[in-house]
Write a structure and sequence with these properties.
Elements (H helix, E strand, L loop, with lengths): L1 H13 L9 H17 L8 H18 L3 H6 L3 E2 L3 E4 L2 E4 L5 E2 L5 H7 L2 H35 L7 H20 L23 H14 L12 H15 L3 H11 L7 H4 L14 H12 L7 H19 L20 H18 L6 H18 L6 H22 L5 H24 L9 H22 L4 H19 L6 H18 L5 H6 L1 H7 L5 H13 L2 H54 L1
Length: 608
């Protein structure tokens, strides 16, 4: 029956034209759908498996044939012959495999382009798709009971049926992704505001989710079964096609696994190990990130998904008053940033591209504000979690800050400046706090926290030096840290070794950041302190200061300042000359006014 449908569907479809009564093929089509459904949902033991698999294949084939692009795709399916024969009682390779392809004829093209045929084809597709939805309802009612009734293993009958179903559905989606299941235009927004409806894409997605629920899993297995892999692959394909529904489904399935390490979410103690194998929820989170690598994913979809991911992150790790009593808040030591970093990287690139090509900035400003809020939560974590944040995630914070600053538009620098300044000040404060703590007390690695705080300070201060070198925060932090370091070098015996090392590390971070700035004025202002740093005992500090001094062009800076002073003097003289001319003009006008007043008085006396 499947072969007949593939070969003659276009001719069978043509029989629907010009009939006044109920067409015979329409009745036959419904009967075929019913037979395929009955076969796919047949109850029984293993002797029914072949019938069920055939029913699944026929059920999906009907939908594939009747979709807009599927008639040609299904009709031109390649059939590969075997290249093995029995020779001398054994299988031998005797010839190359032969592909039998049915060419797409002119007749098929003409059938596809006829409007009346398309009307009937759409009607057949609706019947076939409703049949798939009936299979979903069957899974909801009987699938879980069937899998419980038999042993729940990876080779259960239902699992094999669903594996076949996911493979066939992948072919169906490939035919329908640009027509019946096209996601439609994506508009910029701050979250995925989309609901399930009666559209084909929405119903197809609900079928996939139901298949995933009935996939079953062996809790002792470290890997996903074939059904789960098929569902993940289909969801990834839909997400790569800019389907926001698929992204929302993946985010819902992943839950906190996109932001939290598996060992923090696992109910079993795995002796502190973070390797739990393949977890369905974690694989869903990875699918979100991998979908961003697709060339078919639109920039608008990337931005919307990124905003949704950031909103979820802020709900878990944000530091607003509304979220302080949230039961879902977790310790930052449990966080993971590999997935969200990949999403942010692609999302920022898409946001910058859109920002540079449209004039309406209202929605984009809100998107940039959310990005800045996310970075602020990284740089200013809640007090109860700040040590863990610096200890375990400093390098991730450094990467995210660098990515955001590389794409941030100039109009948002005013918001980024206080964010970076507060982040740098907080990092310095935490670094010195940890040096005063008892290093052997508690579970917090204070030495690691202090080192991470220096990394965070470096990311914030370097961002200020590169993007906003003229802001007061840069000069204030430079003077404060370098002066403190020089003074502590003079009084080294009176300070603890840890505090001294932290000051030196911060001073080296300042010098490394100053080397990246383009502002010669900033370097000239720090010139005296840099000269003093060349006399300290720390070799690293001396070399860092020497590199900056060696790259400075003092003669050019002095010449530029002299020219600036000369221009200021010239302008001052011009203003003084203009002032004198204005005073002379005022005196002349006052004299004219007095003369007019006198003439007016004389005229008044003569008139009276």
């Amino acid at each position: 029956l499947e072969r007949v449908m593939r070969l003659f569907f276009s001719r069978l479809l043509d029989t629907l034209l010009g009939t006044l009564n109920e067409p015979w093929f329409l009745q036959t089509w419904n009967e075929i759908l019913q037979v395929s459904f009955d076969s796919a949902t047949m109850a029984g033991e293993r002797e029914t498996l072949d019938m069920r698999l055939a029913g699944v294949e026929l059920m999906v084939l009907c939908a594939q044939l009747s979709c807009r692009a599927g008639m040609a795709a299904a009709s031109s399916a390649a059939r590969v012959g075997t290249n093995m024969e029995v020779v001398g009682g054994a299988l031998r390779s005797v010839r190359a495999a032969v592909e039998e392809k049915i060419p797409k004829t002119d007749e098929l093209r003409s059938v596809q382009n006829r409007p009346e045929v398309n009307l009937w084809r759409q009607r057949l597709f609706d019947f076939a798709f409703d049949n798939l939805c009936n299979f979903q309802a069957h899974l909801e009612e009987n699938g879980a009971e069937e899998d419980e009734r038999q042993c729940v293993t990876l080779d259960s009958l239902l699992t094999q049926v669903l594996t076949k179903m996911t493979g066939e559905l992948a072919k169906l989606y490939e035919c329908c992704k640009n027509d019946e299941m096209a996601p439609g235009p994506c508009e910029l927004q701050l979250d995925i505001f989309i609901k399930n409806d009666d559209g084909y894409e929405s119903r197809f997605l609900q079928l996939l989710i139901e298949i995933g629920k009935n996939a079953g899993s062996d809790k002792n297995s470290r890997y996903l079964n074939q059904v789960q892999r098929g569902v993940m692959s289909l969801l990834q394909g839909m997400a790569s096609n800019s389907s926001l529904r698929a992204f929302k489904a993946l985010a819902t399935i992943s839950g906190d696994y996109m932001f939290v390490r598996p060992k923090a979410l696992s109910k079993s103690n795995n002796e502190g190990k973070d390797d739990h194998g393949e977890i369905f929820e974690l694989e869903a989170a990875k699918m979100v990130a991998s979908a961003f690598d697709s060339d078919d994913l639109s920039n608008e979809a990337k931005v919307v998904v990124m905003c949704s991911v950031l909103q979820t992150y802020l709900k878990i790790y944000g530091n607003s008053e509304k979220q302080k009593n949230d039961e879902e808040k977790r310790k930052t030591s449990e966080a993971r940033y590999d997935i969200i970093t990949s999403v942010i990287d692609s999302g920022l690139e898409a946001t910058e591209y859109i920002d540079s090509n449209i004039n309406e900035k209202t929605t984009l400003d809100s998107i940039w504000d959310r990005i800045i809020a996310t970075v602020s939560s990284l740089l200013m974590p809640p007090a109860e979690n700040r040590y863990e944040n610096y200890a375990y995630h400093s390098k991730s914070i450094l990467n995210i800050v660098a990515m955001v600053l590389s794409h941030l538009p100039l109009r948002k620098f005013s918001l980024a400046e206080p964010m970076l300044q507060n982040g740098a000040n907080q990092a310095v404060k935490v670094a010195f706090e940890c040096n005063e703590k008892n290093q052997d007390c508690g579970d917090i690695p204070y030495a690691q926290v202090a080192e991470g705080a220096v990394h965070v300070f470096l990311s914030c201060f370097m961002g200020l030096c590169q993007k906003m070198p003229t802001c007061p925060a840069v000069s204030d932090l430079t003077l404060k840290i370098l002066e403190d370091t020089i003074e502590c070098e003079d009084l080294l015996s009176e300070n603890s070794l840890r505090q001294s090392k932290t000051r030196q590390s911060l001073a080296i971070a300042v010098c490394e950041s100053l080397r990246t700035t383009t502002s010669q004025d900033l370097l000239v202002g720090a010139f005296p302190l840099l000269c003093r740093l060349t006399n300290v005992e720390n070799d690293g500090l001396r070399r860092a200061a020497g590199k900056i001094l060696g790259s400075m062009n003092l003669s050019e800076a002095i010449s530029r300042e002299r020219q600036r002073a000369e221009r200021a003097d010239t302008r001052a003289r011009e203003i003084e000359e203009e002032n004198i001319a204005m005073l002379e003009e005022i005196e002349y006008l006052q004299a004219e006014n007095e003369e007019l007043q006198r003439q007016l008085a004389v005229f008044s006396e003569e008139f009276t």
